[in-house]
Amino acid sequence: MTMSNEPSGGNTPRPVDGDTPQPAQAHPAGDGQRSDGESTHAPVDASADAARLASILARLDRPVVLVGMMGVGKSSLGRKLANQLGAPFIDADDAIETSAQMTIPEIFATYGESFFRDGERRVIARLMGDTSGGDAPDEPRVKVIATGGGAFVNDATRALILRSGIAVWLDADLDTLVERTARKDNRPLLRGGNPREILGRLKTERQPFYAQAPIHVMSGNSPHARTLTRLLVAIDHWLDTSALDAPSSVQRES
Question: What is the pLDDT, as a whole number, of residue 246?
Answer without folding.
Answer: 54
